[in-house]
Amino acid sequence: xxxxxxxxxxxxxxxxxxxxxxxxxxxxxxxxxxxxxxxxxxxxxxxxxxxxxxxxxxxxxxxxxxxxxxxxxxxxxxxxxxxxxxxxxxxxxxxxxxxxxxxxxxxxxxxxxxxxxxxxxxxxxxxxxxxxxxxxxxxxxxxxxxxxxxxxxxxxxxxxxxxxxxxxxxxxxxxxxxxxxxxxxxxx
Length: 188
Fold this sequence. Notes:
Elements: E1 5-15, E2 19-28, E3 33-41, E4 45-50, E5 58-64, E6 69-73, E7 76-78, H1 86-98, E8 101-112, E9 121-131, E10 144-147, E11 163-167, E12 170-175, H2 177-186
């Protein structure tokens, strides 16, 4: 049985452009108190898994300051507003970061990235029937496109999926076993 906890106080310690950082004072059922960190990701985000007709995945390479290195990722980004549909965000990020437009996009899964201390939510979409175009990068972005050798041919939308995966500190729901392998590849 999980002990009941109660948040006694939440103090804003820092307000950033997309994140707020809080200090929470928590009380446990035994009366003990601790201070916990909480990060609020105010906007939410979308990511897109762009799949070419032969099953290869379009990925992006960019520098990530938090890791102090380049990473190979699927296109992703924050919503422009709290009311923006994440599907629209995914379509926009795909075109901005890769230049590709899609004629077929469906929700693959909803991802909570770091549930121990952050409320960030990322909706991940599958994009097919891609049409090549030109990148529309922000002034501060430097992104290279890479085509992976992994195949995503057997992916299905989240509505027909039943597997739940908890990997590291991320929680992934609605993922097929095939998708789990691809997500592990894309986010490693």
